[in-house]
Amino acid sequence: MTTAPQNTSAQHSRSDVAGNGPLLEVKDLHVEFRTKHGVAQAINGLNFTLEAGETLAILGESGSGKSVTAQTIMGILDMPPGHIAGGEIRYRGQDLLAMKPEQRRRLRGVSISMIFQDALSSLNPVLPVGWQIAEMFRVHQKMRRRPARQRAIELMRRVGIPAAERRVGDYPHQFSGGMRQRIMIAMAIALNPDVLIADEPTTALDVTVQAQVMRLLKELQTENNMGLILITHDLGVVADVADKIAVMYAGRVMEAADVYDIYARPGHPYTQGLLESLPRIDAAGERLNAIPGLPPSLTDMPPGCPFSPRCPYATDLCRSELPGLLPIVAEHTSACHFRDDMYRGRLQTPEEAQA
Amino acid sequence: MTGYIIRRLLQFIPVVIVATLIVYAMVFLMPGDPIRALSGDRPMSEQVQDRLREQYNLNDPFLIQYGKYMWGVFTQGDFGTTFQGRPVLDIIQQGLPVTLTLAAVAFCFQAIIGAIAGILAAVYKDSFIDRFVQVSLVVAVALPTLAIAFLLQLTFGLNLGWFPIAGTRDGMVSYILPGIVLAAVSTGIVARMLRSELIEALQSDYVRTATAKGMKRSRVVTRHGLRNSLIPVVTFLGADLATMMGGAIVVESVFNMPGLGGQVFRSIQAQENTIVVGIVTLMVLFYVVVNLLVDLLYAVLDPRIRYE
Amino acid sequence: MTELNKAHTVVPAGDPAPSPAPKASAQKDASLWMDTWRSLLRNPWFVVSATLLVMLIAVALFPQLFTDHNPRDCPLSRSRQEPSAEHWFGTDIQGCDYYTRVIYGAGNSMAVGVIVTLSILVLGSLLGLLAAYFGGWVDAVLMRLTDLIFAIPYMLGALVFLAARQERSVWDVAFILIVFTWPTMARLMRGSVLAVINNDYVTAARALGAGPLTIMRRHIIPNSLGPVVGYAAVYTGVIIGAEATLTFLGVGLQLPAISWGLQLNDAQSYLQQMPHLLTFPLIFVALTVFAFTTMGEALRDALDPKSKKR
């Protein structure tokens, strides 16, 4: 899989950004959308870090800013209306947001690459899939047509496409959904990136295919020691694959922790709500607990904690003061005023407290 | 694919037959006696008139006349002879190069200028270039061909004297103004079509993917955006080529060019029916063949289309 | 399509309980038209072309309001004058006041344009609707028929037909233009109906037992006519251009009719000596065609959300 010429040139293109620090670090990121109807604050002070070989799941409802996060890291956010209002995104210590556009472009697809949700619309419908994969080698490594095509076939074989050499000239619409997503993955890992961002990679797929695609991603990650950011709204997907979880709500991280810890002892009422809304096999027959209400409008954020209007434990403090993302124990942070009580299961609703 | 082509060709047969039949009927059932028109003021003996009638099958029932004519066209490439005895094919061969050159100039103009304008407007959407292109397009599409023709004749021909305003004596230079006139409306349509298609393509998921792959903006636009947006534009250009023959009638008349369009116009007025029918048959065939080619081209450009 | 469709999905045909729903739908309809109107007023092209059009229509209907001269009062003594304070557009070969001639020329052009457009709008929409709704052989026959007419360049067909007529009135010119242009309208309507007919609300209406007439009237026509109407306005401009061209070529209207095409025809022989004879009718033809096409485009943008690719 890793042949010599490919490795050297990949390293060559990365040498100019070699630095120290974590693989990827997002610090106090703010992204807004400036529209006619006002400014929508999509991301409000996002923080997380990702190390090589680690899988971070970013979990959230639609509109929580998780896809915007991915697009901002990739540098493919539509600007305007998008606007980066502040913060840093450091890749191996270098701030991506301060880079020259050309320097940043050379990182895209080479060091940081991305898989999209809908492979059918994300692959070019009028170009053969082999061509689209080979384009990575041809553009970034100046490879000639034939060897690039050969590499594309190898990649297609690696991601589990049967009869790859026969199908290399086929078009996206001639593949099944799962196969298309595998092609998308092949394209994203073609140049052995350090960071792979997968934006809802399995949402559009059948349940049986979902598991296969997730397994493939996991395998490839281990093989290449990639940092994987898995963006999803599906708690079920997360549990199997992720090492760390960051729960996003209204453009903020509400809670971030090790995957086992967060499932066992959520440190934020929102996370708790999400977990309780999952159907459980050991609780058959009981009603699902949906979180009441809707996420706040991004153009009109409530003061204080953004979850307070829907939080059963909310107090006046919550409604007036924004809690910071602070540690409860090591490696477990939460943006709740009552994070300690929550974590230890001692938190009571105001009614319970009255009684 | 072969099956599709054969089926399309078979479908075209009735179209060609009925279309030519209609024109044939309109031409030969017109009031007025072409033989008498031919003789003009000179007296012509009854025998001569009868011989001419016999020679041009004018005594046969109408459908037989038509059948004999079409048989000649499709078996021997014989488009008949004029009443003066000159083969119509001769006249066609004389006018065809002029009309084809005119069509080629117009086609190049609308393809190149239309594409450049459309791409610039889409890539620099909402900028000054975009506004400028849009305003010019509204004007170009809205003005009638006749107005554009005279406008160019007056400004660039008479006032500035840059281009000849009539005939084809000056070689390629004399084709420039007529070519622009013939192309004007379609240039506007091409540019507008390409603009909106490209804007849509540039907002698509696959273009976002290409950007995420680290491709340069120029490559994203040309290889990924343009490749998709060109499909309807190329189809339009092809279909437009087929209708250019009609436009050539007006343009060749205004610029007094010795092409098929001007020829057919003069022949209609002179009641030279055989020439009219010959040229019209050729135009209908041209239309039908070009349209078939456009359909096939469409399948080549868009792999999602498969003709069964 | 979506906005238009939604307004009509509110009340499926055969709704057993027409309680507050119809009222809501009526209000939505009204606001839909208000939306269209407001978006039209925001479009500068629409404002310019509509103003122009109102003026041109006034000129066509009441030419005597715009000039004191009689268009047929042509003393040869004052022929071939350059534009002056007295004769704004100069005088022509016969000595007629050219401004008056041009003003009186509007009527015939507009008449042909309006007759043809209204006819093909009715004829084309009806045939297109039938073809799309019933499909099968109705559709096949109609489509072959349009193929047929498209295969003959319309300019050619009109030339052949009109050259054969000794006397040509507005109606002759209109007739031949109708014959050669209705297929465009029919195809447009067919496409527009096909886009609507597979929507769930049509299926729903059918499942609820609504008959073809009800479905066409309540669901299909309101939702598919928008783009067709816009196009019809564009087409009026095209038709007026075609009439001027045919007349210019000598196979359209004849003297003593007053028409821009005839004026252009006369003027072409004096292109070098008296360009103003060409310029003034040309400006009017161009303005009229421009006004119709531009307003049609604006209407199409406003009525057909699909074309709003901005």
TrEMBL record, chain A:
One MF annotation (Gene Ontology) recorded for this entry: ATP hydrolysis activity
Q: Which residues form a coiled coil?
A: none
| The keyword Cell inner membrane belongs to this UniProt entry's keyword annotation | no
State the PROSITE patterns in the record: ABC_TRANSPORTER_1, ABC_TRANSPORTER_2
Instruction: Enumerate the subcellular locations listed in this protein's record, separating them with semicolons.
Output: Cell membrane
Residue ranges constituting the ABC transporter domain according to the UniProt record: 24-275
* Similarity comment text for this entry: Belongs to the ABC transporter superfamily.
Protein name (database record): ABC transporter ATP-binding protein
Which organism was this protein described from? Answer: Nesterenkonia sphaerica
From TrEMBL, chain B:
Membrane topology term reads: Multi-pass membrane protein
Look up keyword S-adenosyl-L-methionine and say if it applies. no
Give all residue intervals belonging to the ABC transmembrane type-1 domain: 96-298
Q: Does the keyword Ribosomal protein apply?
A: no
SUPFAM superfamilies given in the database record: MetI-like
Give the stretches traversing the membrane.
12-30, 100-123, 135-155, 175-194, 233-255, 275-301
Which InterPro entries did the record assign? BPD_transp_1_N (IPR045621), MetI-like (IPR000515), MetI-like_sf (IPR035906)
Give the principal location in a single coarse category.
membrane
Family matches, as PANTHER family: DIPEPTIDE TRANSPORT SYSTEM PERMEASE PROTEIN DPPB-RELATED (PTHR43163), DIPEPTIDE-TRANSPORT INTEGRAL MEMBRANE PROTEIN ABC TRANSPORTER DPPB-RELATED (PTHR43163:SF7)
Would you identify the family this protein belongs to, as annotated? Belongs to the binding-protein-dependent transport system permease family.
The protein's name is ABC transporter permease
Native species? Nesterenkonia sphaerica
From TrEMBL, chain C:
User: InterPro entries in the record, alphabetically?
Assistant: BP-dependent_transpt_permease, MetI-like, MetI-like_sf, OppC_N
Q: Does the keyword Amino-acid biosynthesis apply?
A: no
Gene Ontology cellular-component annotations: plasma membrane
Where is this gene product found? Answer: Cell membrane
Q: Where are the transmembrane segments?
A: 44-62, 111-135, 141-163, 170-189, 232-258, 278-299
Pfam families documented for this protein: BPD_transp_1 (PF00528), OppC_N (PF12911)
Q: Which GO terms describe its biological process?
A: transmembrane transport
Keywords on record: Cell membrane, Membrane, Transmembrane, Transmembrane helix, Transport
Membrane topology field: Multi-pass membrane protein
Chief localisation class: membrane
Tree of life domain? Bacteria
Signal peptide range equals none
Domain ABC transmembrane type-1 residue range list: 106-296
Residue numbers spanned by region Disordered: 1-25
PANTHER family the record matches? ABC TRANSPORTER PERMEASE PROTEIN (PTHR43386:SF6), OLIGOPEPTIDE TRANSPORT SYSTEM PERMEASE PROTEIN APPC (PTHR43386)
Which protein family is it in? Belongs to the binding-protein-dependent transport system permease family.
**What is the name of the protein in this document?**
ABC transporter permease
* UniProt source species: Nesterenkonia sphaerica
The organism's taxonomic lineage, starting at the top: Bacteria, Bacillati, Actinomycetota, Actinomycetes, Micrococcales
